[in-house]
């Protein structure tokens, strides 16, 4: 096995050496390094050297064999070469002789040829110099022209000259040094022109920023004049100005006398905004435009210059970025805008001025900004503007300021709409502001209503002459059969606040209508807004004011009754309010989108509340409490004997009631009956409370007898039918419990009471054991304080024993 392995190893080595030798023979000597490295990496160097020597010897034998084969031909060639050498030497000598002869004969020709060549060279140099100078002179002239244009500030022309110089002329003479200097200066000149034009652009942007408010003022003024002209051509469908003028005329009618049914300031709409001398739109020059106030040439110059230098995209990006930053600054509201229409106006002017300039640039330099870029700027501005107005307009606490802001927003929106910007969100914002404006109106009219209520005397009006009658009918639609035939002074059922409240309701409607002007609303929408606002005025403001009025402790029954009469007439006048709304909107009640005014239900609720207040009049109740309070320190504790008639305090109380019930003749019968029943029940309850009062420890029989006379007086009052319409015995039932209690104690009929207790046929059915026990203990206490000698009487002892027995039985009933 070892022998076989050794043989295989030697065979492999021989093959490797053979391969290396083949590579050495076939490969260039510069690349045999790899083959030699393979030999040295092996372990059979000696064997490889032996094989190499064998290969060398083999090649030597091959060379020798080849040389022996070609030796005869080589000898023949050498012999022929020796024969040719003599002929070549002879040819050489002949050639030298001929050349010498030729040189001698051509010297003159060569000299003249050199002279000719020199002349031709000079001619070519002169022609070349002339040609080059003719090419250089235009370049120098153009460069000088460019320098003059730079000095004159004609940078665009200079840039065009520079471009022509660089592209057309300099390439023709690029080899000259001065051309190289010019070429090196061209980028510097371009940058200089860019810097100068950029400085002019910055000055333009600063000028635009400073003059934005002026541009906006002019633009809004022009739109306002156009709207005014359109309004004069197309009659206003709502006729607010005419209605206000008519209202002023009505308020001022009646010769020089002031209308007694209107306020002194009612001749003017309290929220009418008048144009004063400082009207920002009252400019003398009405034909100014944005280009008249701002020089746009720097923008066009920069646009063309940067376009020529290949930096138009850079310029567009810079311009848009700067204008966007300016837009953010313009959209930042001033610090104090609350109740400051001038601040709102300046804010709107700046925004309008900004977008008027951008619109002008869009139409005169369309490559600078696109419609999409401008629309994106407007969307950003609109979002910011709406947010600012939603915040700051809420802080307008004054209706006049709110109306001025509304008018500014309308003109602002119309102006931007004229320039092609969508403004629907602004009109939506105005509708939202309508709610805030309505709240301000409601607060103002709430104060007006309370002022009217405070100034009213709550007595029926008297008209002394025809002038007063005419003034009334102009302010309030009063209708009554036979009124015109009555003699003076004519008495009206209502007090002065009825026509005044009616007039304020109409003025409120006109104020709401004034806000709807220029909002581009249909008659149906205006009608809906007015009706909703009027319903809020009725249900919230007027109803709350009436509720506050009737709860005033200073009003007596007479005033409350007059308020009921007044609300009745106001309720009847609601149809005239409906007709007034229809006359200004043209929309009738009952149409698909028309809401009905709720004035009738409002005044009904107010009247019901007043009727309840009549029943539970605070002054009236306090009078009862104050008068009957005298019983505590009077009859029950002091009287030892009766005076033979009702107490003075009760006679005064009944006289007080009879006087007040006379006023009830103007009230509905149900209200009068309820008030009378309440009064009797209150007296009965108060008298019962006094008898059972824990602070009264002792009650004498004489006091009970006097108390019995007082209750009899109350029963006589209830039988006299102070208010007609009661069923028989209905009013007397208020004193039944007192009557049964007094009959029980004065007749001392305890056997019947105890025997019939719990039966429906008892004479003392309404006397509870607890009430009887309380009063009996007070009488028992009084008997215990009597003289000791009186107790020795047999009759007294029997009464005392009976009293103790009754008390014990009553306690058993109460505790059982």
UniProtKB/TrEMBL annotation:
<protein>
    <recommendedName>
        <fullName>Exocyst complex component</fullName>
    </recommendedName>
</protein>
<dbReference type="InterPro" id="IPR048359">
    <property type="entry name" value="EXOC6_Sec15_N"/>
</dbReference>
<dbReference type="InterPro" id="IPR007225">
    <property type="entry name" value="EXOC6/Sec15"/>
</dbReference>
<dbReference type="GO" id="GO:0016020">
    <property type="term" value="C:membrane"/>
</dbReference>
<feature type="region of interest" description="Disordered">
    <location>
        <begin position="252"/>
        <end position="272"/>
    </location>
</feature>
<keyword id="KW-0268">Exocytosis</keyword>
<dbReference type="Pfam" id="PF20651">
    <property type="entry name" value="EXOC6_Sec15_N"/>
</dbReference>
<dbReference type="GO" id="GO:0090522">
    <property type="term" value="P:vesicle tethering involved in exocytosis"/>
</dbReference>
<dbReference type="GO" id="GO:0006893">
    <property type="term" value="P:Golgi to plasma membrane transport"/>
</dbReference>
<comment type="similarity">
    <text>Belongs to the SEC15 family.</text>
</comment>
<feature type="domain" description="Exocyst complex component EXOC6/Sec15 N-terminal">
    <location>
        <begin position="52"/>
        <end position="220"/>
    </location>
</feature>
<comment type="function">
    <text>Component of the exocyst complex involved in the docking of exocytic vesicles with fusion sites on the plasma membrane.</text>
</comment>
<dbReference type="InterPro" id="IPR042045">
    <property type="entry name" value="EXOC6/Sec15_C_dom1"/>
</dbReference>
<feature type="compositionally biased region" description="Polar residues">
    <location>
        <begin position="252"/>
        <end position="271"/>
    </location>
</feature>
<dbReference type="InterPro" id="IPR046361">
    <property type="entry name" value="EXOC6/Sec15_C"/>
</dbReference>
<feature type="domain" description="Exocyst complex subunit EXOC6/Sec15 C-terminal">
    <location>
        <begin position="426"/>
        <end position="778"/>
    </location>
</feature>
<dbReference type="GO" id="GO:0000145">
    <property type="term" value="C:exocyst"/>
</dbReference>
<dbReference type="Pfam" id="PF04091">
    <property type="entry name" value="Sec15_C"/>
</dbReference>
<keyword id="KW-0813">Transport</keyword>
<dbReference type="GO" id="GO:0006886">
    <property type="term" value="P:intracellular protein transport"/>
</dbReference>
């Amino acid at each position: 096995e070892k022998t076989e392995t050794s043989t295989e190893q030697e065979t492999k080595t021989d093959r490797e050496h053979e391969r290396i030798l083949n590579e050495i023979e076939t490969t260039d000597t510069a690349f045999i390094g790899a083959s030699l490295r393979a030999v040295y990496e092996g372990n059979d160097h000696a064997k490889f050297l032996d094989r190499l020597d064998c290969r060398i010897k083999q090649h030597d034998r091959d060379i020798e064999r080849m040389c022996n084969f070609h030796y005869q031909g080589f000898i023949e060639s050498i012999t022929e070469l020796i024969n040719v050498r003599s002929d070549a030497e002879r040819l050489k000598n002949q050639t030298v002789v001929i050349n010498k002869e030729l040189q001698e004969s051509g010297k003159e020709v060569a000299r003249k040829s050199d002279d000719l060549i020199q002349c031709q060279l000079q001619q070519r140099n002169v022609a070349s110099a002339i040609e080059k100078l003719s090419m250089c002179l235009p370049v120098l002239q153009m460069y000088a022209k460019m320098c003059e244009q730079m000095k004159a500030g004609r940078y665009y022309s200079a840039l065009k000259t520079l471009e022509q110089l660089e592209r057309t002329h300099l390439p023709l003479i690029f080899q000259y040094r001065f051309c190289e200097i010019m070429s090196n200066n061209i980028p510097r000149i371009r940058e200089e022109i860019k810097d100068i034009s950029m400085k002019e652009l910055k000055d333009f942007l600063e000028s635009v920023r400073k003059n934005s408010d002026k541009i906006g003022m002019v633009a809004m003024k022009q739109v306002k004049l156009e709207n005014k002209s359109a309004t004069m051509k197309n009659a206003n469908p709502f006729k607010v100005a005419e209605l206000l003028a008519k209202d002023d005329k009505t308020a001022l009618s009646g010769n020089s006398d002031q209308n007694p049914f209107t306020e002194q300031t009612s001749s003017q709409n309290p929220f009418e905004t008048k144009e004063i001398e400082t009207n920002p739109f009252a400019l003398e020059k009405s034909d100014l435009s944005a280009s008249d106030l701002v020089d746009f040439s720097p923008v066009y110059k920069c646009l063309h210059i940067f376009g020529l230098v290949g930096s138009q995209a850079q310029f567009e990006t810079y311009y848009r970025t700067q204008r966007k930053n300016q837009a953010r600054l313009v959209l930042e509201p001033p610090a104090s805008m609350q109740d400051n229409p001038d601040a709102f106006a300046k804010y709107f002017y700046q925004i309008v001025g900004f977008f008027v300039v951008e619109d002008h640039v869009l139409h005169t330099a369309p490559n600078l900004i696109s419609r999409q870029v401008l629309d994106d700027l407007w969307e950003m501005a609109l979002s910011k503007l709406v947010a600012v107005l939603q915040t700051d307009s809420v802080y307008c606490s004054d209706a006049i300021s709110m109306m001025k802001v509304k008018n500014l927003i309308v003109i602002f929106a119309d102006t931007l709409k004229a320039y092609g910007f969508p403004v629907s969100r602004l009109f939506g914002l105005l509708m939202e502001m309508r709610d805030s404006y309505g709240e301000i109106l409601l607060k103002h009219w709430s104060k007006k209503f309370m002022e009217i209520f405070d100034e009213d005397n709550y007595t029926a009006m008297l008209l002394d002459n025809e002038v007063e009658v005419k003034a009334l009918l102009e302010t309030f639609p009063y209708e009554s059969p036979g009124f015109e035939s009555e003699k003076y002074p004519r008495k009206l059922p209502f007090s002065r606040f009825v026509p005044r409240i009616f007039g304020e309701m109409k003025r409120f409607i006109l104020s709401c209508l004034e806000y709807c002007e220029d909002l581009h609303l249909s008659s149906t929408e205006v009608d809906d807004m007015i009706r909703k606002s009027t319903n809020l005025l009725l249900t919230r403001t007027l109803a709350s004011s009436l509720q506050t009025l009737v709860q005033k402790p200073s009003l007596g029954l007479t005033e409350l009754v007059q308020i009921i009469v007044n609300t009745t007439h106001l309720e009847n006048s609601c149809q005239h309010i409906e007709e007034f709304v229809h006359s200004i909107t043209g929309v009738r009640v009952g149409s698909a989108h028309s809401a009905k005014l709720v004035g009738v239900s409002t005044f009904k609720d107010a009247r019901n509340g007043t009727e309840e207040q009549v029943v539970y009049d605070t002054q009236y109740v306090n009078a009862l409490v104050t008068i009957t309070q005298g019983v505590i320190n009077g009859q029950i504790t002091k009287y030892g004997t009766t005076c033979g008639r009702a107490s003075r305090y009760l006679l005064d109380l009944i006289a007080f009631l009879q006087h007040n019930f006379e006023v009830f003749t103007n009230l509905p019968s149900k209200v009068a009956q309820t008030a009378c029943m309440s009064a009797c029940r209150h007296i009965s309850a108060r008298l019962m409370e006094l008898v059972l009062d824990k602070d009264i420890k002792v009650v004498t029989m004489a006091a009970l007898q006097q108390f019995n006379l007082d209750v009899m007086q109350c029963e006589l009052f209830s039988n006299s039918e102070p208010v007609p319409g009661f069923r028989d015995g209905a009013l007397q039932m208020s004193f039944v419990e007192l009557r049964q209690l007094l009959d029980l104690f004065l007749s001392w009929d305890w056997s019947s009471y105890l025997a019939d207790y719990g039966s429906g046929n008892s004479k003392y059915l309404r006397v509870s054991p607890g009430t009887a026990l309380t009063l009996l203990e007070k009488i028992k206490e009084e008997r215990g304080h009597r003289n000791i000698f009186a107790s020795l009487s047999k009759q007294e002892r029997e009464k005392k024993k009976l009293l103790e027995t009754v008390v014990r039985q009553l306690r058993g009933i109460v505790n059982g």
